[in-house]
Structures are given as structure tokens and as C-alpha cells.
Amino acid sequence: MGRVTAGVWDVPGNGVLPALAVLGTCFFAGGLAGCLLAGHVDGAGSESLSAYLNSFLQAAGGGELEGPALASLVWGELRWPLLVLLLGFTALGLLALPAVFALRGFLLAFSISTFVRLLGRKGCLLAGLVFGIPGALAVPALFVLGVQSFLAARVLAGRVWGDGRGPIPYGKRYVLRCGMCAAALCMCVLLEDLVVPALVTGLAGRLTLS
User: Fold this and answer.
1) How far apart, in Å, are the Cα atoms of 78 and each of 75, 184, 208?
2) What is the pLDDT of residues 66-92, one digit of tens each?
3) How far is CA 153 from the centre of its chain?
4) Residues 6+ apart with CB under 8 A from 39
């Protein structure tokens, strides 16, 4: 069983670690930019964020928080992995995937940093509930899809440029990894629909804006 599982995650082709390093660096760089921007938002922008978060906490504390529709949750979880998956079927993914990971890291870090800035230490807990619970599965799944898509795009780019004749990596293991990531994302949807709203509602009444 262990050998079978290891085989599934054995991404074909050399360069798995370099691909992970490229995407991870872009994700980290985007996250750093998001943190810096969140720390420099002031004036009308800061007031708008404070008003939005305050209304969100009041609704949650009063038991009036309504989670988004199921279709919205599904789209929110699948849009990034789906984009990453599709980019693995084109040579353009070799350049587009690092940009996608940088943007994803930026948006995630900006959202978390905003919570922390407006709520202080309590914002860490709230951000952990809102973003950390589903993100614990969604982010690793995104990286799994991203690495294999990056390697596939590299093969396609080599064929376009005439510099490589590597086999097309869309085999059984490729599909199995996609299926495992899809299962993880379905779990994220369930967590966001059933678990996160209840936890946020229980915590919101104890939080006030800094």
C-alpha cells in the first residue's frame, strides 16, 4: 500500500524540486507583497475595511451570519486549482503558473494581514478559522496540481521550441493526483459550509476592532 501511494505522488520527469521551488518562491513573494500592502492601507481604504469587518462581526455575533450559497463555495474553492490545471495543458503555463501562484499568495496574505491589523492578536485566530481550516487542504492541493502542471507545461514548451521530446505526462498517475486533489477540495467545501460558519459565529461575539 505504501509503495502504491508513493508511486501516485512520483511525478514523472526531472525537476520536481526546482518546480516546487519556483512556485513556492512566487507564492511567498506574493504573500510578502500582500502583507506589506495590508500594512500600508490607510485613510478611506482602511475605514472601508474596518466598516466591512465590523459589520461582518456584528452579523456573526448576532447569529445572523449566512454562509454563501453552495455554488459560490464550490467556485471559490475550484477557481484557482482549475486555472492551474488548465494551464498544465499549454506551453504558456510555464510563464503563467508562477504568476498565478504569486497572485494567490498575495490575495491570501493580504486578507489574513487585514484581519490581524484590524483585530490584533484576536485577528490571528479569526483568520485561522476563515482561511486556515480550508486552506490546510486547499493550499497543498494547489501546489500538487501546480507542480505537475508546471512540469507538463515545460514538456509542451520543449516540444514547441524543438528542444525536447519528452513524453506527454498525462497518464494514470496524473489523473489519480487530480482526483485526490479534487477529493481534498470537496472536503474544503464541506468545512466552509458546515464547520467554519459555526466556529466564526461562536468567536465573533468576543472580538472587537482595534
Assistant:
1) 5, 11, 32
2) 666 788 889 999 999 999 999 999 999
3) 20
4) 113, 117
In tens, the pLDDT along 62-72 reads 665 666 678 88
Global pTM exceeds 0.70: yes
Of 77, 82, 53, 50, whose CA–CA distance to 65 is shortest? 53
22: its cell numbers: 519556483
**How many whole angstroms separate alpha carbon 154 and alpha carbon 94?**
6
Closest CA to 109 of 20, 36, 54, 60: 36
The residue to which cell 507583497 is assigned? 33
Within 10 A of 207 (CB to CB), how many other CB atoms are there?
A: 21
Q: Give which of 128, 145, 156, 130 is closest to 185, Cα–Cα.
A: 145
